[in-house]
Each structure stands twice: as structure tokens, then as C-alpha cells.
């Protein structure tokens, strides 16, 4: 199997494996302190605090696209669950919402084979920072759409979403119906992964990618229309929109750019490009490929889904960056949560460092391309980040 077939399958197959997986011969460093629930003894992980100057507000949207039949259910309209995060006034808003609901947590742990190792309460009680319904800070902010990996919920990108919002972005993290182990929808419904039965082939993965691109265009329509679906949509600057995604969500970010010119920039975090970059490029728009140590040039495969052949078609500003000692989940909340839960590490890079590097490079990319603030961090390696590699295929 060539590498982007491994990373092509990283977007699917690796996500179907229990997580995290121990790496033979890897000595795990002592995990950082975790918060414990005094009444139950359950370990409650704590996500790293956002680094920006703003507090963070959070609201949840349920969106229904009645113009499309759901491709996985074969009936009924296409539905999305979206968590909106935004710069908020300090001291406002209600409690922080659970990282997952109890049923979402139960289904995710069962999907990973971790029912006996991790308590449901550890996931529902994971500490985050966005306050529900907090009052927004007046202004107009760039919008970033985040799409998670296949089978995992949008909650897995919470650390990144909260950090971006604290730095002055509106962030829309999306769960695509029937593509996770379990996502709670209104009416007490929890939709499970019907797509898992149909996405095992290259054609199926392309269908997931293209379908997500259509989801995102619908989301942008609903957030930027004259009668938007979100009450705080006036915060969004419709001329500064970008997208990032993990795994197949990263593939969808590039596909959404190809399909929707409103998306000015995109980041693919370790996902195979199941909808290849068009031969004519992306109109000069910037793209960053941010990968694990396995996603280096010459190691991503030569088929149409690989980063190597698609790199040549990217016709604007572009970077190919990898982190040493990392793995496919480095760009999500999982590493820092796993460290605190005492689970075996799947790569030597500590969880807190994984979050720090991901936030730093993703934030720099959007600051440069949506806010026009030059970022020397993106020009090449730095002494303060020896794990980071810049590649020029």
C-alpha cells in the first residue's frame, strides 16, 4: 500500500481503529495533572486554555437543507449540527456545555473499543471554556468552518475552535449527519454512522468529501443570507471566509474551495485529497497541508488522492508542513485528553505540545490570509519549534 493510500485511508481506516493506539517501543512521558470529580473519582480531562485576548461564546445551530435528500439515509432532508464560537464579553454567558452528551460519549467509546478503559463521564465532563450564549464583542470577524474526521464528532476540534475564536474569529464546527459514531439532533435523536457502510471504497470517500463540500456551501448560505439562521450572524465578515478540516474533513476543505469561491483559504490537516485539486488550480487561493510525520513528500503516494500529485496543482501561496513524532490524531483534542486519562500514547509528541503547535500554525495561516498580518512563522523552521518541518517537493 503506498502512503496516501495509507493517508487516503488515514481519513477513513485509521479513524475506524480504536484510539489512541500504543506505539511499540514508545515510552510515554508522565501525563499532566488531570481534574478529578471528587464525588465519583472519575478523571475529567481539561483542554488547554485559549490563548487569545477574547473570551469565547458558544451557540448551537440545527440546519436543515430541504433541497437535498440525505445521501446516506436515502430519505429525508440533509441535516447539520453546528457549534458557533465567537469573541465574547468577559463575565457573560451561561455554563460551559458538555464536550459530548452522555449518549454521544457512550457511542464514541464503544466505537473505539474503550468502554472498559474510559468512563462516559470523562468525556461529558471534559473541561472546555466557551460560555453558552455569551454576549458577543461588537465587530466584524472572519469566519472559519471546521470539519472533523470521518466517524468522529466536531467536539474533537474544540481546542482549536476555542483558540481561534479567542483570537478574533467566528468559528463554525460542523457535524455532518450520519458520518459520526453518534451525534445528537433535536427531538432526542442520535444519528449514527450510516455512511460507514458505504464509504469503504475510493468512490465512497469521494462521495463523503463532495457531500461535505455541499454541506459547507449550504452552511455559508444560511450564515450570510439576508435572513440568516444565526442571530449573531452580523459578526461575520462575508468577504473573509476560510475552512480547515481534519482527515476527510481536510479533504472536504479543499473540495469546498474548488466548489465555492467564497472560501478564500483552506487547511487540510492530514487528510487524503479524495476530490483532487482541479487541473486549473484554485484560482490562486492559499492552501496549507499540515500533516503528521508520515505525510512527507514522496511518502504520500502517487495516485490521484496523494498530496504529491495534488501539490503541483495548487496555484497560489502554499505550504507543506509536518510535525515530527506525530500521528493522525495530533491535530485534534485526543492527544491531550489521552495523556490525562492515562491511555497509551499513539505517538511520542505530548498532547499539550500537539495542541500548541496545531493552534500556532493554523492560527498563523488564518492571521496572514484572512487578516493580512504577515506571519514569519510560516516562512520556515524556527528554533522554538524543532518538531516542525517545511517541505518543498
Task: Provide structural commentary.
This protein has a single domain, classed as Alpha/Beta hydrolase fold, catalytic domain (Rossmann fold), CATH 3.40.50.1820. α5 (158-166) crosses α10, α6 crosses α7 and α9 packs antiparallel against α10. It has 10 helices and 14 strands. The strands form 3 sheets. It has a 10-stranded mixed beta sheet. It has a two-stranded antiparallel sheet with strand order 1-2. The protein has 393 residues and is α/β, with parallel strands linked by helices. Helix content is 27%, strand content 22%.
What labels would you give this structure?
14 strands, 27% helix, two-stranded antiparallel sheet, 10-stranded mixed β-sheet, single chain, 393 residues, disordered N terminus, alpha/beta, Rossmann fold
Class from helix and strand fractions: alpha/beta
Report the total helices.
10
Number of domains: 1
Query: Which stretches are poorly predicted, pLDDT < 50 over at least 5 residues?
Result: 1-38
Q: CATH class, please?
A: Alpha Beta
Whole-number radius of gyration?
A: 19 Å
Q: Oligomerization state of this entry?
A: single chain
CATH level-four homologous superfamily name? Alpha/Beta hydrolase fold, catalytic domain
Output mean pLDDT: 91
Instruction: Give the H and E element order.
Output: HHEEEEHHEEHEEEHEHEEHEHHE
Number of extended strands: 14
Strand order, sheet with most strands: 5-3-4-7-6-10-11-12-13-14
Beta-strand share of residues: 15-25%
Global shape: globular
Overall CATH architecture = 3-Layer(aba) Sandwich
CATH fold category name: Rossmann fold
